[in-house]
Amino acid sequence: APSPNQVLAGVYPISQLQEPYSAVGYLASRLPLPTLLQLPSATSAWTAWDICEAWAEKRGYKTARTARNDVYRAANSILRLAAEGKLPLCHRPPGYSQNKGETPPQNLQ
Fold first, then answer.
1. Which of 46, 50, 93, 109, by CA, is between 20 and 30 Å from 35?
2. 60: domain range?
3. What is the CATH number of the domain that holds 42?
4. Tens of each residue's pLDDT in the chain, 109 residues
5. Cα separation of 18 and 62, whole Å?
């Protein structure tokens, strides 16, 4: 399975990720993260970095030395929200859309 799926499924530890932005991007492609996290509206399309930066600003995550927004910590925070089930992420089984119109098999006695 791809790395973002492993992280969101809880198979791969979030703390071990060196680059969490691709997993946040994967999550953002399937959920309306700016709306769910109540981020201020942007003038252009959201990227994973923009979402992490806005979340860091909202939560007050700052780096120690330069007091910039800590986007790495924000990305980890967003992924933890998804892993804990606080962000509603679900995947449909393979072939769901093809089998959606079929009737389920009847119990045979």
1. 93
2. 4-84
3. 1.10.1580
4. 677 778 887 788 888 888 999 999 999 998 899 999 999 887 788 999 999 999 999 999 999 888 899 999 999 999 999 888 898 887 777 777 766 666 655 554 5
5. 18
